[in-house]
Amino acid sequence: MWSRAGISRTTLILIVVLVIVVVVLGGLLAYYATRPPAKPTPTVSPTTVEFLTWWGPEDPQGLAWVAGNFSVYYPGYHVEYYSIPGAGGTNAKYVILGMLEAGKPPGSFQAHYAPEILSYVEIMPHGPADFVNFTSMAIQEGLLSKGVTEAVLAGMFNSTMFSLPTNVHRGGMLYFNPQFLKQYGLPIPTTVEQLANETLYLASQGVSCIWIIPGGDGGWDQLNLWEYIFLGLAGEKYGPEKAAQLMNEFLYGVLNLNDPAIAQLINETDYYFLLFTKYDCPGWQSMTWSSGLAYIIQGKAAFQVNGNWIVEYAYIWYHVVTYPAIPPYTSWTNITLMEEPFPGTQGIYVLVIDSVAVPATNNPQMNAGIRLAEFWSSYIGMKIWTSSAKGVTIWANGTNYYPTPAQWFDYQQLLSTAPGAFTIAPSDGGLFDDVFSTLNTQVLNLQQVGSSYIPTFNSALVSAEQTTYSEWMAAVKLGLGYMGYPGHPFANYLPPWVNPTTYHYQPYTPWWQTG
How many Cβ atoms are within 10 Å of 138's Cβ, its own excluded? Predict the structure, then answer.
């Protein structure tokens, strides 16, 4: 049998044995533990759809609003949520993969609207045919004409959409308490070097908890930090559009790590990563991104890197409003949580888009799942969801209904960013699932071991690029070889195996095979 590259059956078996044995003991058992008690002859209502998600603990209010309004706008339909906790879907992804591989798909599930979803498509017996293609529905509801173009293209593969977006998050944000910085006479950092200097200054003043880089999320926070240091350094050296292109090359598996300029960027990224992680808060090993946020708000730590789901969590659980680092807010003295694009990434928009995917095989809830996806991605559905502080809308005609100034700032930036300055967070959907898992482990090892691990880590980056490339080649065989549609590639960038005139495959030899 031909072994599909995305995550092959052989690879998946290894994942199931080595990962899901651990994850499912917590995640999958938690999933089934939250299901209603089994009936003697269980039946599934065609008007009820389950939605498997990793959001549950973070936004119960917003999820309740979506569920209630879904039933209002689609009378007779009902959604039931099942949550697998874990930052960025680190646990849920493998539960979903296991269920799909076992032929027992969830009625619908959360997926990043990004290359990640190809991991699910490539393991299915019939590939794309085993998922609902939402392209025609998106066209009908006006998403392609009235949505933010690059955000819409990020989850489209040669015209095919395997999910519908529910919101746009912005990755690569630096969070801090401005009062903490003022206490030490420090300005808001705008370059990577300045951020490093402020870190060292705080250390010289005896501050022991400077950075929040939790280890309890399995390396996800470390990957967030590493990738945005890289993007920030690239932005400072090349400008927003070239830096975004380099990240997009990384996502396609074609970033030439043998190029001396790229190798230098990698080495500088490793250096700053180890500098920042050296001043991680005591107890970071068991901390999670959400628990660590309290240290920032309370003025007990200086910096945390994450996406703007921080805004939602602070608003719902700590009743704290987040502000962008712009006038007049920079002069206010009552703000305890502020955000800015990670130093060096100004002018770049890092997309982290959540979506609803619906399996089309062995899924009696398929039609109900389609209705849920249609509702959630609609203007009104997304307004209901994002008004709970959950990211921003993908629709380009949105208004300022957001409860926090940070959201409105992020939305305005979404509308004004140049098309070529968009990229997708590797830590949140930009990578295939197995590469994501590998890099999480490797970057966590880098923090734990230190500089002696750099050669191993850099070698792992090469392997990650090679694997990513092979998985995109599998996508090519399925007719899904790039993000976007003919004439409209995501971020104005086409991978080198796509002919820019015909949008068909053209021969390409990756850098590691050229000698």
Answer: 22
